[in-house]
Amino acid sequence: MIQLIDAEGQNRGQIPTQEALAMAEEAGLDLVEIVPTANPPVCKILDLGKLKYEGQKKAAEARKRQKTIEVKEIKMRPNIDDHDYETKMKAVRRFFDEGDKVKVTLRFRGREMAHQELGLKLLNRVREETAEISKVEAEPKLEGRQMMMVLAPRG
């Protein structure tokens, strides 16, 4: 015995399984078990191929709406000019608006390595200017001739 819902969505009550299968065959559709845990199990007469197709469409739509967070990189030098700095900061803000993380990389060349405090000062300036829209995910650290810091958008 099963609880049957026909193709129009009408509840037919409890019907023997063989009779329900015959009704589905007659309608040219499938008998699909919807709630197997119920007592008696609930089955519905419908097109199984169409049901699977609708499920795939919903899953594809959900994947399409999903935002993947990317890590965008901004490269600077310790003795960057003010205008160049402002241009880079506009890009950083745009990345945060799009919901991406930003990796700020500072490249030292030649004798700039002797003045790493200038690089640290620059990264702290970036941190302070973006404090209300971002949080520091990785503190500034020196790796070889590069100093880097990762910022993530707040929210």
Descriptive overview:
The protein has 155 residues and is an alpha/beta fold. The protein has a 4-stranded mixed sheet. A 4-stranded mixed sheet has the order 5-6-8-7, with helices on one face. The two termini are 53 Å apart. The protein has 4 helices and 8 strands. Strand 1 (2-5) and strand 2 form a beta hairpin. The model has no long low-confidence stretch (mean pLDDT 88). The protein has helices at residues 17-27, 48-65, 82-97, 116-129, and strands at 2-5, 11-15, 30-35, 42-46, 71-76, 101-107, 134-143, 146-153. Helices cover 38% and strands 33% of the residues.
Using brief descriptors, characterize the structure shown.
155 residues; alpha/beta; four-stranded mixed sheet; 4 helices; 8 strands; 38% helix
Structural class: alpha/beta
Largest beta-sheet characterization: 4 strands, mixed
Radius of gyration: 31 Å
**Global mean pLDDT:** 88
The proportion of residues in beta strands is 25-35%
Order of helices and strands: EEHEEHEHEHEE
Strand order of the largest sheet: 2-1-4-3
Separation of the first and last Cα atoms: 53 Å
Give me the count of strands.
Answer: 8
The residue ranges in which pLDDT falls below 50 over 5 or more consecutive positions are none
Looking at the structure, what is the overall shape?
rod-shaped
